[in-house]
Amino acid sequence: MRFTNPIPFVRDISRSKEFYEERLGLTVLEDFGNFVLFEGGFAIHEGRSLQQTVWREELASAEPYGRRNLLLYFEHEDVDAVFERIAPHMECQAWGQRVFRFYDPDGHAIEIGEPLDFGSSSKGEA
Predict the structure, then answer these.
(1) Residue 7 is part of which domain span?
(2) Of 38, 44, 76, 100, whose CB neighbour count within 10 A is largest?
């Protein structure tokens, strides 16, 4: 068995698709309307329809799906370029490995960091 991908529930699939395409620069591989698969295996699913499929019920709440219990982690070789593109739209924090965090339209935490080279002692140090 192997883990394939996380699928966060989103309230507005169009808004979330645009966010991940425009802000993060992800490329859509497949768009099935209520499910969008991006290159690299990341996917989003419109929450109401997935609730019906998985739990056979639709929750009436209009709250965002992000519950501050999931972090979506991405890496990029040029974290500075990504930061420059995204910085105007987010709050950032830094620690050890150079990373920054922000939130998608549903409040899911997103973190982008530079890859760590575990074979080198200097890479990733602050």
Answers:
(1) 1-62
(2) 44
